[in-house]
Structures are given as C-alpha cells and as structure tokens.
Amino acid sequence: MAKARVPSHDEPISRPAGPAAGLGLDAEALGRLFPFHLVLDRQLAIRSAGAVLQRVLPALAPPAAFSDHFTVRRPALALDFDTLAAHTRTIFLLAARAAPDLILKGEMIPLKAGAQLAFIGTPWITDLTALPRLRLTASDFPVHDSVSDFLVLIQAQKTALEDARKLAEQLGEARDAALKASRVKSEFLANMSHELRTPLNAIIGFSEMLSTQTLGPLPEQYHSYADYIRSSGVMLLDLINDLLDLSRIEAGQYSLEESEVAVGPTLSECLAVVTTDAQRKGLKLSLEPGPRDLRLRADQRAIKQIVLNLLSNAVKFTERGGISVHVEPHRLGLDLRVVDTGIGIDPIIIPCLFEPFRQGHIGLSRKYGGSGLGLSICRNLVELHGGTIALASEPGKGTTATVRLPPGRIIAGG
Ligand SMILES: Nc1ncnc2c1ncn2[C@@H]1O[C@H](COP(=O)(O)OP(=O)(O)OP(=O)(O)O)[C@@H](O)[C@H]1O
Ligand SMILES: [Mg+2]
Q1: Which of 42-51, 340-349, 389-398 has the lowest mean pLDDT?
Q2: For the chain, N or C: smaller number of CB within 10 Å?
C-alpha cells in the first residue's frame, strides 16, 4: 500500500493533499468518496472540507474554527484535539450551526502522526424539506452510504403522514364549519319562511276576497290591483316554499313520508293544476297513464312536486303545440316522462340546470319568471327515492324530462 501523505499546516485548504492515513486514500479519493469530509489541524482549524460540504456551508472557508460551525452531539466531549483524537473510530454526530437540519455522522481518523485529524462523515438530513434548501440532490450523497437514503425515505413517509394528518384535521374542521353553517342557514330559512308565510297568507287571502268582491262591488281598477296583489303573493309564497324545501333537503332534514301512491290519479291531479295556464296559452294536455293499477311506494307529496315542477316548466316554455305525460314501467324501473313541443334548450347547458338558481334562457328570464329552483328540487326529491332525472332537448323543437324510479318502488302494475 502506498505511503500516506497528508497536507501540512500551510498547504492551501482548497487542495487537500495526500492519502488519509489508515484508509489509504489520496486527496482526490478523499474528495470523491467523502464529499462531506473535514480535515482539522491541532488548533481545530478546518484545513480542508469536502466539495459538497463547502457548497452547503460556504462559511467553512479556511481557516474557519471547527467549533464556530459545528457542535459535537455525541459523544459529549471536551473540544480539544487530543480528546477527539483519542476517540477515533467512535461515532460522532456533528450538528452544523448554520444549517440545523444538516447533521454529519462519522468517525475521526488521525492523519500524519497525529498532527491532523480527518472527520469522515455522511450527512443525516433531519427534515426532508431541507434538501432543496441546502440545494442537495441524490448525486451529492456518498455512493457507499445507504443511511441517508433510508433517512430520506423515512422522512418522506413521516412528512406524508404528517401532511395526511394535517389534511384530515383541516377536512374535519371544514366539515364541522360547513355543517354548522348549513345548520344555521336551515334554521334561518325555516324561521324566516315561517315569519314570511304567515303575513303572505293574509295578503293572499284578503286580496282574494277583494278580487272576488266578497263584501261588495269594487271599482274596476281596484279589482285588477287586488288580482295583481294576489298573484304576486302566490309567487312569493311558492318561492319561499321552494327555498324551505331545498334547504331542508340539503341539510338532510327532509325525510320521505312513504305510502302507496296510485300513479294515474296522482298524475291527473297534477295535470289539473296546470290546466288553466295551459288553456290560456292554447296548449293541449294529455296523459298516458300506463297500467291502470300502477302503484308506487313513494312520498306522494314529493312525487306531485316533481311532476308539477316539470309540468310548470313545460307549460312555461311552450308557446304552441302541447304537453304529454307518459308512464312506462320496464325492467329497470318506472319512467315518468313529461314531453313538450316548446322552445327547447341547448343540450350543453342541461347539466347545469339541476344546480339551484340556474336558468337557461338568460335574456328571457324576465319574460318567463321563476327563480331556477324547480329542477334542483326535482333532482333532490328523485334522488331521495333512489331514482334519476334527465332532460333531453332540441332547441326549437321541444324538451323531454324523464324521471326514472327504481324497480323496487313499484308495488303493483309494473
Ligand atoms: N321544458 C323546458 N323547456 C325549456 N327549457 C327548460 C325546460 N325546463 C327547464 N328549462 C330551463 O331550465 C331552467 C331551470 O329550470 P327550473 O325549473 O330549475 O327553474 P325555473 O323554471 O326558471 O324557476 P322555478 O322553477 O324556480 O320557478 C329554466 O329557467 C329553463 O331555462
Ligand atoms: Mg321551473
């Protein structure tokens, strides 16, 4: 083995010379294999430092004092050359003062008859996020050392777990806040609706008395004013009822009151409600009720509300032709279809229309009125029954709304 040559005190630091005694390494090998090494002289001045270590801790420029830049973590020793030299082959942890996440783990090796000591170390990174901060990449770690890889892996797992825990915490907080906000919103809507409904019912009732002239004749103009007050009151009441329903559904407080629902008669009742409006527009209404004894297990009020919302849309958005309601039981359940020959709607925006307050005929919303809640309520009520709802439309030709209820809802006539 070639004789070791170590740098003398006055040799320039940037060129660590000579092999490390006992290791048989020359300066180049020391630099290549141990990019995190240090050579200390008797005064514990740093005589040379590995290239990567110098890059990470630029303040190591010679003649830096060892104790200005590192603390010895283990073993706890007095910091003088002889004590360090006496503990060669003992594991030292050197914590870098300027970069607390960088710890070097290694051994002291005496060089040249005790005049210099080499610390040959490998990095321990205590925080994964320190890697980019220290501008370290995988190629900066010694090839022969798997400890740093292992630590990085552990650290990555730890960071991932910590991130997941924080995320779960944040999600939990967000959920609690959302639940609270939703509860507050529902309570507010329920209270407001109650407060608004009571006077509205009085307004509607008394304006009806005026418009039907129950207590005696009124001048013609008052009569039409009374009519207007009544219809506006009814619109407001509808809106409040829709809002209340939607907030109850969204807060999970809407529970179905299930009973046996006779499909034919229920649909006839719904058609009766929209007959006056349809006749006023000259629209034909028809019903194909399917099997006579068709019955469902469902919430009758909800089914009526679904069909009425679809029918009122059909009447509202149809100027000529008519509206037909079809009932068709089949293998996959029961289809209720409301078909109109109206203005239709661009198929691209159909999916949005089931969101609350979305309307498709922007420029025309004043003409057609409404607040964009009908389809959203329909979808929620249909889904509470385990069903689906879809719209198909061809602008200018008409629209078909299909409600599909699951086969388990059919009691008879399916
Ligand atoms: N049969 C239909 N023909 C054409 N467009 C329709 C039809 N049904 C719904 N739409 C479009 O979908 C939008 C949303 O319908 P939705 O029933 O939710 O609200 P709305 O009828 O405007 O108001 P609300 O039902 O609250 O009185 C409507 O504004 C309209 O643009
Ligand atoms: Mg509507």
Answers
A1: 42-51
A2: N
Q: Rounded to the nearest whole angstrom, what is the distance from the C-alpha of residue 372 to the centroid of ligand 2?
A: 6
- Residue 375 CB–ligand 1 contact under 6 Å: yes
For the domain spanning 27-145, the CATH number is: 3.30.450.260
Q: Which of 375, 381, 394, 402 to mutate to test the pocket of ligand 1 (most atoms within 8 A of CB)?
A: 375
List the one residue out of 135, 108, 140, 109 whose CA is nearest residue 123: 140
Give the tokens for residue 294. 């068709």
Q: Is 353 in the pocket of ligand 1 (CB under 6 A)?
A: yes
Ligand in closest contact with the CA of 355: 1
DSSP 8-state assignment for residue 19: P
DSSP 8-state symbol, 45: B
Which ranges of 130-262 would DSSP assign to H, the alpha helix?
A: 130-133, 147-211, 220-250
| CA of 370, nearest ligand number | 1
What CA–CA distances, in Å, run from 354 to 339, 370, 377, 390? Answer: 18, 14, 8, 9
Nearest Cα to Cα of residue 242 among 336, 300, 306, 179: 306
What is the rounded CA–CA span in Å between residue 375 and residue 391? 10
Q: What is the pLDDT of residues 160-199, one digit of tens each?
A: 888 889 999 999 999 999 888 877 877 787 777 778 888 8
Between CA 93 and CA 321 the distance in angstroms is 89
Region(s) of the chain under CATH 1.10.287: 168-250
Closest residue by Cα to atom 28, ligand 1, is 359
Q: Which residues does residue 111 pair with via DSSP β-bridges, in sequence order? A: 116
Looking at the structure, give the CATH architecture of the domain made up of residues 168-250. Answer: Orthogonal Bundle (1.10)
Domain with CATH 3.30.450.260 in the chain: 27-145
